[in-house]
Recover the amino acids of this structure.
């Protein structure tokens, strides 16, 4: 479950949900694979799988071929999550862009769309636009309205009230409850999370974090944030604002650049798409600004800038990794997808600065879903709402 409840969950239901996740993610698609992945007894697995099939959440889809030397027994049937008839929706609010997607009842993407817009300063207009985009996408496909929608918000949400709680990051959103606003506009159940948290969920289920229970996800885009999965569960902190690393002081001061939070020298003033593009444009005076991107740097100067930015981020992340001891650090957003100069530099800097035992068990990788991680995670969250 991604939306925790105060009610205790029976052990039988926890086992069933654990196996359902493994089947849906593709990590284990037969009873024998589930036994191996979980260490549970074959009878426990068989009982839970039978329950999942009986309730229509899992289907048996043909047979898995047996390998050479595996014996002459009956081939194992392949288990798949049932797509179901429900349609779910996802919204990813970036600071300057909105992306939407529709998926089936298991959270698998059917179609998506996006538009550039000012999200930070036009909260109501941005939500109107997102809902229109989502409904229009459903109309184009000739399918019904989504049964549930999950949305990623690029700023801190108070988990106790559902309200946006930082006027310095999302000035026009403060005091709004995005879930209620979207539910009212769409006439359906809606859930809102910090966008980086949904990115962590997407990567842990279907991206570079698959197979990991302790995931540290970084969304490096127009802003900088982190999403945490600890011991297999989304971690929000005491009030829902865990992961706001963008407003941590840059190691060494970072030049003391002013930040939108009102301070100087925040990590976001160095490690964000806008700050990086400004440096690249300054070093390429003969190139039109709209021809410059952070993706796959093609010249030595740009590669050096990306490496320096990556090193700054790696230095800062080392102390967080010492504290949290994740097994994988996933670099998402446009900077995470920019290429090896950035990713390799983050890895080398982090491993140099982190406690050796921390670094020894840590993978540092780009997001497997690229810039779509938040949208994929939102689809997964919406599918949970339907269930």
């Amino acid at each position: 479950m991604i939306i925790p409840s105060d009610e205790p969950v029976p052990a039988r239901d926890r086992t069933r949900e654990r196996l359902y996740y493994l089947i849906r993610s593709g990590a284990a698609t037969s009873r024998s694979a589930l036994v191996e992945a979980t260490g549970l007894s074959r009878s426990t697995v068989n009982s839970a799988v039978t329950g999942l099939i009986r309730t229509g959440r899992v289907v048996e889809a043909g047979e898995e071929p047996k390998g050479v030397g595996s014996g002459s027994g009956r081939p194992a049937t392949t288990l798949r999550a049932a797509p179901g008839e429900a349609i779910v929706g996802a919204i990813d609010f970036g600071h300057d862009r909105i992306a939407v997607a529709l998926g089936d009842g298991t959270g698998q993407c059917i179609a998506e769309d996006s538009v550039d817009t000012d999200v930070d300063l036009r909260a109501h207009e941005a939500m109107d636009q997102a809902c229109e985009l989502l409904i229009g996408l459903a109309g184009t496909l000739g399918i019904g309205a989504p049964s549930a929608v999950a949305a990623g918000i690029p700023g801190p949400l108070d988990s106790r009230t559902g309200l946006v709680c930082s006027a310095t990051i999302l000035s026009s959103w403060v005091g709004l409850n995005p879930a209620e606003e979207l539910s009212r506009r769409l006439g359906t159940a809606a859930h809102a999370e910090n966008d980086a948290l949904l990115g962590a969920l997407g990567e842990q289920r279907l991206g570079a974090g698959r197979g990991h229970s302790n995931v540290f996800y970084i969304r490096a885009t127009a802003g900088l944030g982190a999403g945490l999965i600890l011991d297999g569960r989304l971690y929000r902190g005491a009030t829902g604002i865990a992961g706001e690393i963008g407003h941590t002081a840059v190691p060494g001061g970072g030049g003391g650049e002013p930040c939108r939070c009102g301070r100087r020298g925040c990590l976001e003033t160095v490690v964000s798409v806008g700050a990086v593009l400004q440096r690249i444009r300054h070093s390429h005076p003969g190139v039109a600004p709209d021809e410059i991107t952070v993706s796959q740097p093609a010249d030595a100067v740009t590669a050096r800038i990306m490496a320096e930015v990556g090193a700054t981020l790696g230095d800062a992340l080392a102390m967080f990794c010492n504290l949290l001891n994740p097994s994988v650090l996933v670099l998402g957003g446009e900077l995470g997808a920019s290429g090896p100069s950035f990713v390799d530099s983050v890895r080398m800097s982090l491993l140099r600065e982190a406690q050796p035992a921390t670094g020894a068990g840590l993978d540092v990788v780009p997001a497997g879903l690229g810039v779509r991680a938040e949208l994929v995670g939102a689809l997964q969250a919406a599918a949970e709402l339907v269930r």
About this structure: Residues 1-7, 64-70 have pLDDT under 50 and may be disordered. The CA atoms of residues 61 and 78 lie 5 Å apart. Residues 300-324 form the longest helix (25 residues). The chain has twelve helices and twelve strands.
